[in-house]
Amino acid sequence: MNGDFVHTIKTTGESSHGYGNCDICGKHCTEVFVLDEARYYQLPDIIAMERNVPIGTLALTYANCESKFGHKNCLENYAKTRKNRYE
Ligand SMILES: [Zn+2]
Fold it and tell me: Residue 80 belongs to what H/E stretch?
């Protein structure tokens, strides 16, 4: 839905020695994960027409979104705190 966040969490396969401490709790991680955040937005009508897709088509944007590194649990909790625009 328009304004909804999309979160993906992936391992970097490395510890805090490579990526630094957790962005959320500031502690060392034996395995650092990365949270990628994107959100849906409705294409402006003019863009939809240019791309020959239906009016109201949703696309993903990284505008005003953040990426974080840290513990998987910390990232999952952080993602839950991110509110969708129309809630
Ligand atoms: Zn943490």
Answer: helix 72-81
- pTM, two decimals, is 0.80
Contacts of 64 (CB under 8 A, 6+ apart): 39
Which residues have a beta carbon within 5 Å of ligand 1, which is an ion?
22, 24-25, 70-71, 74
* 5 Cα to the center of ligand 1, angstroms: 21
Domain ranges of the chain: 5-81
Q: What does DSSP say about strands 68-70 and 58-61: parallel, antiparallel, or unpaired?
A: unpaired
Q: State the Cα–Cα distance between residues 46 and 51, nearest whole angstrom.
A: 9
Q: What is the pLDDT of residues 28-54, one digit of tens each?
A: 999 999 999 999 999 999 999 999 999
